[in-house]
Write a structure and sequence with these properties.
The chain has 284 residues and is an alpha+beta fold. The chain has 2 domains: 31-116 and 258-269, FAD/NAD(P)-binding domain; 130-255, Guanine Nucleotide Dissociation Inhibitor, domain 1 (Orthogonal Bundle), CATH 1.10.405. The protein has 11 helices and 9 strands. The strands form 4 sheets. The protein has a 3-stranded antiparallel β-sheet, with no helix packed on it. A two-stranded parallel sheet has the order 1-2. Strands 3-4 form a two-stranded antiparallel ribbon. Helix 2 runs parallel beside helix 11 and helix 5 packs antiparallel against helix 6 (181-195). The longest helix is centred in the middle third of the chain and has 18 residues, at 150-167. It is globular and about 65 Å long. It starts with 21 loop residues before the first helix and ends in a 15-residue tail after the last helix.
Length: 284
């Protein structure tokens, strides 16, 4: 989809580098595409039976090809859920565990195989409405229903201000919401040129919003962070990586898969599509 939308839907992983409406494509009534009849039944090798490999195999099978997956371990790749002997209702996610609702392609397949989700208990989220921060011997208890303590509110405000001052964040996200490719690229491409070789820490340290505060504010921003936790381990990374995360709200509204996310690749492996080319009905 390359034309702007007339309404402003929720933020999705539409861009910003290579804007494409994967959710619209996946849900299109005509399917993902078509192959010439002469290609039907042709084998296609897929290396790895992680979620990417299984999704690729599933969609290629629907088009009439014969995907052959090669996997040395078990299905699922980094979507791996472990149960414990004697406590079958306890599940440990050893790979992916938090899935933002902006990732519409992922939720397309969750819905397809009938899996349910619940809010992930990130600090101060509805599923975990209070938290304790213990920093340098000072303990602070915070409840999500009330205002942040003044110091943490200053850090939060500085981060929001820095994003707006140095990336034009509001306009950028508005273009992303509207799926206005021309507007999005006109805003994003200069940011790429300016920040491709500059770090997350450079962004924070050089921002007027943080510059007028103490160094301790910057420290706390790294240690406590925003969204799901501290970000100081990402300070050496390119600022573009961080902007991609916050712009598409990958740190917001995260959910877990009830019963374990490994169910997704396993159910997809056994799922018989309602629309299938070449293969008999019921093929998985």
């Amino acid at each position: 989809m390359s034309q702007p939308r007339t309404t402003a839907p929720a933020v999705t992983c539409f861009g910003p580098d290579f804007p494409f409406a994967y959710d619209d494509w996946l849900s299109h009534p005509a399917g993902l595409g078509a192959l010439p009849e002469a290609a039907h039944g042709a084998e296609v090798a897929i290396i790895g039976a992680g979620i990417a490999g299984i999704v690729a195999a599933y969609e290629l099978m629907k088009l009439g090809l014969r995907p052959v997956l090669y996997e040395q371990g078990r299905l699922g790749g980094r979507l791996r859920s472990e149960r414990f002997a004697g406590a079958e209702d306890v599940i440990a996610e050893l790979g992916g565990m938090r899935f933002p609702t902006s990732s519409r392609g992922f939720y397309h397949y969750l819905d397809l195989v009938g899996l349910d989700t619940a809010p992930f208990p990130n600090p101060l989220s509805p599923a975990s409405p209070s938290t304790v921060i213990d920093l340098e011997g000072t303990t602070t208890y915070i409840e999500g229903t009330g205002p942040l303590p003044p110091f943490f509110a200053e850090v939060q405000s500085a981060w929001a201000e820095a994003l707006e001052q140095q990336s034009g964040f509001a306009a950028l996200q508005a273009a992303l919401r509207a799926r206005d490719v021309a507007a999005l690229k006109s805003l994003w491409n200069p940011i790429v040129a300016a920040w491709d070789e500059r770090t997350f820490y450079d962004f924070v340290a050089s921002s007027p919003a943080f510059a007028r505060l103490s160094f301790h504010h910057r420290e706390v921003f790294g240690q406590v962070g925003f969204g799901t936790g501290g970000w100081d381990s990402d300070f050496p990374n390119s600022m573009l990586e961080i902007l991609r995360v916050v712009l598409t709200e990958l740190e917001d509204d995260q959910r877990l898969v009830i019963g374990g996310v490994e169910q997704l690749p396993r159910r997809l492996w056994a799922h018989a599509p309602s629309r299938l080319v070449h293969w008999p009905a019921g093929t998985t």
